[in-house]
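Re: export button greyed out
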Amino acid sequence: MVFARTARAREQFDWPLFLAVVCIAIIGVVNLYSATSPYIDDPRRSGLADMYVQQVYWLVIGGLFGTLAAVIDYRTIERFAYVLYGIGIATLVLVLVLGPDVRGSARWINVGPLAFQPSEFMKLFIVIATARKLADDPRTEPRTLLEMLPAAMLFALPAVLVMAQPDFGTSMIYTSCALSMLALARVRRSSLALGLAGLIPTAWGMWHFGLRDYQKSRILSFLNPEADRTGTGWHALQSRTAIGNGGLWGEGFREGTQNQFGFLPDQFSDFPFSVFAEDWGFVGCIALLALYAFVCAWAINIASLAKDRFGAAVAVGIGATFFWHTVFNVGMTIGVLPVVGITLPLFSYGGSSTLTTLVGFGLLMNVSLRR
Amino acid sequence: MKLFVQRSDVGEFRRRYHLMVLAILVAFAILTARLADLQIVEAPTHRAQARRNIVGRVTLATTRGVIRDTQGRVLAANRPSYDIYVVPDVIDMKETWPRAVQLMGLDAAEAKTYKERILDIRARDGKRKLQQTLLKVDVSRDVVAALETHAAELPGIDVVPTPVRYYPYGQVGAHLLGYMREIDAEGLARYDAENYRAGDRMGAVGVERRWESYLRGQRGWQKVVRGQNRRAQRTGLGEQYLEEPRRLEPIPGRDISLTIDVELEKAILRELRGQLAGAVVVVDVRTGRLLAAVSKPGFDPNVLSGEQGKEAIRDAFRRLSRDPLKPLLDKTTSAVYPPGSTYKPFSALAALADGLIDPGVEIDCRGGYEFGRRFFRCTGVHRKVNLRSAIVQSCNTYFYALGEMIHIDQLAKVGMDFGFGAKTGIGINPEARGRMPTRAWYARRYKGDGFRGGFTLLAAIGQGATTVTVLQLALAYAALANDGTLYQPQVVRSIETSAGTTVQEFPPRVRSIIESDPTQLALLRSALRGVVAEPKGTAYNDSIADVGLAGKTGTAQVSHVTPRGVDPKRVWYFNRDHAWFAGYAPASAPEIAIVVLIEHGGGGGKNAAPVAMKVVDAWQKLSKRRLTARVGEPARGEPARNAGASL
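Workaround output, generated via the alternate export path:
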């Protein structure tokens, strides 16, 4: 019996997904090495140069958790969906209670020597909970907006909580992912129109009551980057200069001058793509984006092959998380979106983010294995 | 309907998958399009910006030219001053500070002052506590070595070398050499084209200022690759982006050789030891070159140039500008004095040229001269005097009589022929003109008709409105000695590159040839020799036998006014006469002309003449020593490269 199950797993092991993810992860580590290599010769910050090694550790740990997430039958996970969601909300509240850190925002919880970001893991819990809600509520007729409201509340609550940290980027990711999942459900045209119309006052309310000044100035400087070359617009400008400097073929590995000489800010957290683009040029970027696009599309493919509603919704949710992260991050580095602190999955340095991404792919594999 | 729907029914979702894949493709297509825009279309712009980011220029410092005296002794050079800076917020007052105090060798009082200053800055808010604060300037090399060795244990303490101008002879020749000062905003605006920057130093007065453009040199630059923190992090990377030319070598400033002999200057200062204030000028009769120019009291150019820090500069200036003896004033060129009797030879020449007097005719001096309703006093009762004996004994009566005959404009004309009343053209320091009064001048001075005959009488004995500078007088006596050639004074003999090649030499420049009768000049020279050599001469008493000096003493009355800021108990000093001696040596074949002025020194014969005598003596000894030295080895301090040329 056990033998039969493993045989089936091997048969249906999702090699394309696995290989694509491993490829991106390897490129990501190599790129992280390039991004932090300017620190090798800097005696005061040589510790930062070892960041890529730590990233490998996180990938290994993430891989283990991801395997765990792939092996447990996702229907077990479905059963505990709301419990997990509740734990997630509790940690988000805890973060707010613990108060802000030195940089003025409350994002981390310290457990002994480790610090983790509950808002990262919350992404998975939202996907699972929303999938559970969609699975529990099958319809054949288009829904009204009111009928969608309980599902929408599942992402709205954590979105408000991380907004209070304040973390605008993560809040946007929650919203985009959940809306992508809700898009699976059919909604009445009239309701849809009403919903879209409702966006305008919501945006107005957000601008005046929801956003902090620094967030507003980021958006303003995005709309007019030349207005503030040294202040808020500086990051975006430096990033574009580095990417443009890469040209068609790139400056070569560890040869990108803007990164190597320290002109690229946050090059290992928010702007690793700029490092890659400077080193490898347009050709390298096309290849990398193709990999990212493939993973996104493959997630939809897995969803379409899923045997139940929960599996399909989870696959779409994981795919959407990956997709929006990529689009927002790359978009901000090339100047088509404002600078919000959203990481590039498997490229940005970060334990919580890497762990979340790999556990997410574990769930995706889970669905793929059990189609 | 609802009954037929299963939890596992995925039908509702199916219609969305294609749309989602389409959305993914569109999104990535947009990203790719923008990337193509950045990396292909806009690439040249970004690449150019990227290069501008990493390519910078660093300034390559130059060194200021050295100033040497006529024997090649260094009068002004450069040396590093090791200054200690402290970052108040960084230094650990419990651990680091006691160690630093010990290494710097500070005594308890000094350490306490510094500590209080650091704590004071720390207590206040603002950026200053994170910036380097100057603690102590110009520490010794031992301290530098100690601090450098233990640098790792002394966070927050830095030793910074700063180039400072160094004048090895201190006060000697200070007025002539000048000093350095930090360029101010006005100077920055004016000299912008010459590449001055805030914090640069430039010559303030004297040779340092006049020859600034030669001494200064030119900065160079080098293009470098540098990072955001202004340091290149990886050597080799990005160097292909440095465009040619990559480097402009700095040009060191030109060295300047002066005509001054610093040993003679020192000898003069030695002879002036007993005097509060005065000036001495020695010029070469045959070239007009300045051999020495001393103005007393002086100042230490090392302090004014910042050797002991900015506070010391401020303190020094405050003290110097308040001093009633005016140490900052160059009394050889920038100040004017009534010449008194030293002017008599020129009055005599003016009368002789007009044929107004016969040198042989005698006048009876009864202690003064009656003119109009005034009695003009003489220095004594000389009885029968002719021109020669009137000069030897400095008889005023003779010259009053001369003054009654001569037109004041004739006196002024001959005076101007000898260079009085006009700038000599020495070119350093603001030069005073002095004054040769004429009828026109008196008309301007007294608004129309105010001229009286008495003015001419006073002008004939070098009093009244007549004023001269010490340098003018020396050059005029040189002209007397050399048969009437008036030279433009020279301070700079030649300009050399830092490697020693002569760039420019300055031959003597004749200002004018004075039309005069050689026999008249010979008569005057004989009289001037008599002043020193004959028992009746006013300078006879202190004459030194071997010194073949000739010249004229002078005792110039000063107007009785109290200078401002002078202690009333000291007013008597400022009302005393100026003591003069002007002459040349050796009398038989003149080589140097010398003028000694002792401000408020009293009688010229008693006070100024002995100084002149000893200075000439010193000069002769120096010349003799030099002659023997040249036969043997190069003189001390003289660079070897000049030795061959001087043989």
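Chain A has a mean pLDDT of 87. The button fix ships in the next patch.
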